[in-house]
Amino acid sequence: MVISLWQQVSKEQAPGRHATPRCRVTWEGGTATAVEGRTASSNFLSEVQEADGTPLPDRLVGDIQLVVSELVTNAIRHAPGPCGLQVELSADGRAVRVAVWDTSSKMPTPRPRDACRIGGHGLEIVRAVSRSVIVQPGSPGKQVTAEIELPQPARGESASW
């Protein structure tokens, strides 16, 4: 079985700077699944936790996987062609950044809250668990980036994420 999935975990490092761990996954048109996105992000978070030696809270891991799932599902549902996912630590080490790109130039439109509506809550959910959400036009398509804040170590403790 051939799976059109490319995953790369890279630790690029500029001179004098700490490495920025990240995971990238790209899918050809019609092959993306939210499960593959969640699996890639889960593996990435496990590697980050192993490197640091400090476990992330289960709720935070769940929130990150929820964001990945919602953004990848939206890309699958609303855009033709290839799409991709990148999960990385923010430059300040205080958040996990989840970015999903697709080939549709149509920007997502947040809908008003409606508890009776079935579906259409993805962006609302992503915004609820993220410290920021940015939608940027791309060529082709767009990228949606969400940052989920990491718990900060208590004074005197260190975390190397």
UniProtKB/TrEMBL annotation:
Pfam families: HATPase_c_2. This is Histidine kinase/HSP90-like ATPase domain-containing protein. Coiled coil: none annotated. InterPro entries: Anti-sigma-factor_SerPK (IPR050267), HATPase_C_sf (IPR036890), HATPase_dom (IPR003594). It comes from Streptomyces avermitilis. Keywords: Kinase, Serine/threonine-protein kinase, Transferase. GO terms for molecular function: protein serine/threonine kinase activity. Residues 51-146 form the Histidine kinase/HSP90-like ATPase domain.
